[in-house]
Amino acid sequence: NWKYQVFVLDPPAPIECPFTGMWTFKQVGQPNSLIQTRIRGGITPRPRDHGWFITCDPQYMVSQWTICGDQTKSMFADREYCRQLDPYGTPIGVYEQPDYIYQCAGYWREDSRSVMVTYDRDDPYNNYKCWVYERRDLTTITLSRSAGSACGFNQTSESYKSEDGADLAITLIEAERIHDDCPIRYDDVKSQIGCTFDRPLLGEYYSYENGLEAHTSLKENGDIDRLFYRRESGRGATANIITVLDNHAIGECFNLIWRENPFDHASKHHFELIYRDKEKSCYQCYELYNRTRNVLQIRTSECNEITSIVTNQINFQDLCASINQDADFDTLFLKTYSAEECRATIYGTYHFTYEFREGGIGICDNPISRLVSCPDPGTPFEAVNERFWMTYGYCRDLVSSIDAQPLYQCLGYWINDKGDIFTGIANERVGSERWYDKFRCMLTRQDQPQWFAKSLFAECARLYSPTDGPEKVIISPIIPEVPTPTCFFPDNFTGEWVNTANVNARTIINATHIHEISQVNNRGWLRETYYVCQQISRQQFLVKTVTKGECFSYYICFDFKDRHHNILRYRKSKSFMSNVYDDLSKRDPLYEVCSWISFGNDANWKYQVFVLDPPAPIECPFTGMWTFKQVGQPNSLIQTRIRGG
Q: What positions does the domain DUF7042 occupy (predicted)?
């Protein structure tokens, strides 16, 4: 967010205000923050002509906000300005003093907002105020005033609530009465007919829109170039050269603002860009959604010269309101992308089946199909996986199956208001001369992680659900490697056990393996872990651990007590990555993993308990006949019940 603090010269040297003109104004805000009529400097002791000019016919009473003439370094606000003429033909308001004088101290552009600081020497509490201002159309300007000296982080030109850091919102409506005496000038720290681009919008983008390949350039000076190509007939989907230019749009940014409603889902916050076509001389509204630092999504209006037949003028608010909010997004991928983490979308080692909607119906289930999304071995601990590879196995009975191994880099993910998780990906094994084959989009959900849909082009619009898309993939977790056992567990360990610390887990032990199956959530998804015997020292067993769907194997040490009746007690050490001990001639994992410090510093040496399932009956530790009294939770007391009905 890069929030900057501000130093203001005290007192500030007056500067030219960022806009000039004459307006009437409407205001909304906190009751004690509204602009009220006040008499600056006190009442005139001896008003001219016995004060006849103080009264004004209500029909001529208006509000007035002026920055004009030779007074363009201050904003003059008058809550009640009289437009009536005196007997000499002079406006009565000429004799009045404005209620507020805001001296312009500085203005700049930050976070796509135009910000201004003013100085009010008559304010007894706070001389400095921060304003966010915006030109809505040719005759209207909105601006909001901060509650304190600094603009709020969420303050926009329409803010007036304290949670946004503002206390007053003002709408200025053009009301120039003398032609060219007070012309409107506006500077949002960009030229009026052009705005500049910075991150996250600046860059060169590729997209696939309505069957055409689009190359979009958002330049630093505000120019926007869009070139639309169609693939030459007969070249096929893997053509390296695109030769047919279908359309070329050249324009510039006229205005750029950030739209954010705190009551809307975060996925609906966006930039609103007014685009002016240089060739057609028309205006178009763009909604730019910054999904990740590599992906933009846009929706556009028609390019119009006017939006009102009555006034024959362009109204930007009406232009943007004409965008269909149910329309599909066009997805733009940054050509100079930088990879982001994949963990939120997919992580681990999986087998997968796949099916293409077009080109042949059928699911290809080849045992060699693999999806691996894991960090590269040897990367720092804080590094996360930024890419994954998929090995597609070929199915002889399906013409739509393929034999390929793409390596995808993740371009970031975003979540819409329905809970769908979208991820942009780029095929690292496709060169920059083949943008058509490089970018793709994936869709999954947090509550359906085994399914995801993948696009066939650089678009997300045809992904409707994890099971409805051009390519459907179903993944199932597998173990990252198959360890070889090199020792044996005692014979009386064999059997099926229940861990009393986790009654939702089943544990099966044979001569060389401990297989633990646990339910990880209320949907019944299972987590399967295998512990494979490697070395034995006294009652300590060094095992190699592999978990279905995980990336790496680990060494763990079990410290077992001798089996007693149906009970098997044990302690488990911390886990150690197995690849650290690949060279066993230098480091023996047994002495490190099974050292006492690996079991933690629990002075009571707390043991976990396995109970044989089902247990073999044994003699109880005491016998006799008793009456009993009980105390406990109401739903835990022993109650009368009829067993068996």
A: 14-159, 341-474
